[in-house]
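The instructor's notes for this session suggest beginning with a concrete chain rather than abstract definitions. Hand out the sequence below and ask the class to guess, before any prediction is shown, which regions might be ordered.
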Amino acid sequence: MWAGGTLIELLKDITVGLSPLTAADAQEMVQTLKTAPLLAGYRGSPSRDAAALQDILLRVSAMAEDLPQIVEMDLNPIMVRQQGAIVIDARIRVEVPPPPLPLSARRR
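After discussion, reveal the predicted structure:
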């Protein structure tokens, strides 16, 4: 399955989640896509590896948690195959993270 670029922009078929994602978050993000029926094998086409797509979301979420200098990320398109999924293009913006707040200024 290949859905990305201008097709996704036209359909406004995006999903956004805040890290850290849980497995349930990743599953919901995938299931709410307008193109999600294509993953199940729409109109006789082979089913695709939705679990691999969810795994990418979880790994990206973990990476964002571990690397606070990542301030923006766009993965488009992601090719979901019958077995596995591949990020075809990624854009990651990094900045020097601000210093941590002193303990006295943190919310409790």
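Then share the key points. The first strand starts at residue 2 and ends at 3. Residues 50-66 form the longest helix (17 residues).
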